[in-house]
């Protein structure tokens, strides 16, 4: 089979981390772009990325690129594609279009024409056509037109990959699993030293850290990915790759993962999430305040955390006080420790009164954030 080109999407700012993950998976022709990373490989490679890439949001297969300055060119480009490997004549699909700096700029119209060309091709070849399903399509098609050229991609993932399948408890403001994993990876945690999250919430950062240390593939709890429902998919391949992913799991051993949290209800939720992964004994949660905890000198832990941002009026002043005490405590007791803090509010970062050794801008949903790394 000729290798295909895949585009793996991620949250803006995380591209270098995703790039490093794809290198670790030993994929070919890896190329970083804005919003994601390209690689070249087989459908099996795409399943591996769906199973293993912790910072990826979606894995898209690039089907074609063609000129699309006019409606006719767009139609001809789509009609020339062999859709049979991806879609059955009685299957379902949806088209999502984007356009930028192009003559065809009406996205609804673009979606319509892509749909028409695909449907006509099926009718001619099979006398039957797949139907449009916006809720649960078997095939999601993305048409991106930029400077009058159309890139057509199909989604191999299905649901966004942050949905790992372990979140039984939501919590108030859980950090996305993909961003939590990114924070742990970016911190440079050695996977042996203690790791603590003093604002643990539903424990996503700690859970992602435990999964990393135990080599648990983040996609293993998902029943299937979209490409496994394609017509040309070989089901034996899926079982084989899952089996070999399962075999890589190792025990948490003596590693210490610790979470602090002020709300007991949230801690109960975190434990439910851990049970889904069989990791209930891997993480210890304590009820307490981050700024009052007794950070033990010489413990040399990694602090990886996502404190509250102070979205509500009045919160910010109290939080600034918390951050000042926290910064002082870290300075006094945590020499030799590392701290990686995801913050969406630069004023609060200043209240820590510590100098970051490096930082990375990331987007957390609609919020522009900063990951600040401190060598304490
Ligand atoms: C932004 S949330 C963390 C979300 C978490 N990363 C997750 O994925 O669920 C911040 C958490 O810090 C807790 N919190 C607020 N003030 C605290 C303090 N002084 N010490 C410890 N936890 C605190 C809140 O109850 C909340 O659960």
Structure explained in plain terms:
It is built from ten helices and 15 strands. It has 376 residues and is α/β, with parallel strands linked by helices. It folds into two domains: 4-155, 2-Layer Sandwich (VC0802-like), CATH 3.30.2130; 177-216 and 249-375, Rossmann fold (3-Layer(aba) Sandwich), CATH 3.40.50.150. The strands form two sheets. An eight-stranded mixed β-sheet has the order 2-3-1-4-8-7-5-6. β10, α8 and β11 form a beta-alpha-beta unit. The longest helix is centred in the N-terminal third of the chain and has 20 residues, at 107-126. The protein is elongated and about 75 Å long. S-adenosylmethionine is lined by residues 171, 173-175, 198-199, 201-202, 204-205, 260-263, 266, 289-291, 306-308, 322. Residues 171, 173-175, 198-199, 201-202, 204-205, 260-263, 266, 289-291, 306-308, 322 line the site of S-adenosylmethionine (SAM).
Structural class: alpha/beta
Number of helices: 10
- The total beta strand count reads 15
Anisotropy-based shape: elongated
| Content of β-strand | 15-25%
Give average pLDDT, whole number. Answer: 95
Task: Give the radius of gyration.
Answer: 23 Å
What is CATH's topology name of the largest domain?
Rossmann fold
CATH class (first level) name of the largest domain: Alpha Beta
Produce the secondary structure layout:
Blueprint: E1 4-9, H1 15-24, E2 28-33, E3 36-41, H2 43-52, E4 58-67, H3 71-79, E5 92-100, H4 107-126, E6 131-132, E7 139-146, E8 149-155, H5 177-187, E9 195-197, H6 204-213, H7 235-247, E10 257-261, H8 264-277, E11 283-287, E12 302-305, H9 315-333, E13 338-343, H10 346-351, E14 358-364, E15 367-375
Parallel strand pairs: 5-6, 5-7, 9-10, 9-12, 10-11, 12-13
Antiparallel strand pairs: 1-3, 1-4, 2-3, 4-8, 7-8, 13-15, 14-15
Helix pairs in contact: 2-7, 3-4, 5-6
The chain binds S-adenosylmethionine (SAM).
Residues 171, 173-175, 198-199, 201-202, 204-205, 260-263, 266, 289-291, 306-308, 322 line the site of S-adenosylmethionine.
């Amino acid at each position: 089979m000729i290798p295909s080109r895949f585009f793996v999407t991620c949250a803006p700012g995380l591209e270098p981390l995703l790039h490093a993950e794809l290198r670790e998976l030993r994929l070919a022709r890896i190329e970083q772009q804005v919003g994601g990373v390209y690689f070249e490989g087989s459908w099996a490679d795409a399943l591996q990325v769906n199973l293993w890439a912790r910072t990826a949001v979606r894995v898209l297969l690039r089907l074609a690129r063609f000129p699309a300055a006019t409606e006719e060119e767009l139609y001809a480009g789509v009609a020339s594609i062999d859709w049979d490997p991806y879609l059955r004549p009685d299957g379902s699909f949806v088209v999502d279009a984007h356009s930028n700096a192009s003559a065809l700029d009406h996205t609804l119209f673009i979606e319509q024409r892509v749909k028409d060309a695909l449907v006509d091709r099926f009718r001619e070849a099979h006398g039957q056509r797949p139907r449009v399903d916006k809720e649960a399509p078997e095939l999601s098609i993305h048409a991106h037109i930029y400077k009058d050229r159309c890139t057509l991609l199909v989604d191999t993932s299905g649901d966004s990959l942050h949905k790992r399948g372990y979140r039984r408890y939501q919590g108030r403001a859980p950090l996305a699993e993909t961003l939590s994993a990114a924070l742990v990876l970016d911190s440079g945690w050695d996977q042996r030293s203690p790791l603590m999250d003093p604002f643990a919430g539903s424990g996503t950062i700690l859970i992602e850290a435990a999964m990393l240390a135990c080599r648990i593939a983040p996609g293993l709890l998902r029943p299937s990915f979209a490409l496994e429902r394609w017509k040309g998919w070989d089901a034996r391949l899926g079982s084989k790759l899952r089996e070999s992913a399962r075999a890589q799991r190792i025990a948490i051993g003596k590693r210490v993962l610790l979470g602090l949290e002020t709300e007991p209800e949230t801690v109960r939720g975190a434990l439910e999430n851990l049970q889904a992964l069989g990791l209930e004994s891997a993480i210890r949660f304590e009820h307490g305040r981050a700024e009052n905890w007794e950070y033990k000198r010489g413990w040399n832990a990694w602090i990886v955390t996502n404190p509250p941002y102070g979205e509500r009026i009045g919160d910010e002043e109290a939080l600034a006080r918390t951050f000042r005490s926290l910064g002082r405590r870290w300075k006094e007791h945590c020499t030799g420790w590392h701290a990686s803090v995801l913050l969406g509010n630069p004023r609060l970062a200043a209240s820590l009164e510590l100098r970051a050794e490096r930082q990375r801008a990331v987007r957390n949903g609609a919020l522009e954030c900063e990951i600040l790394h401190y060598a304490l």
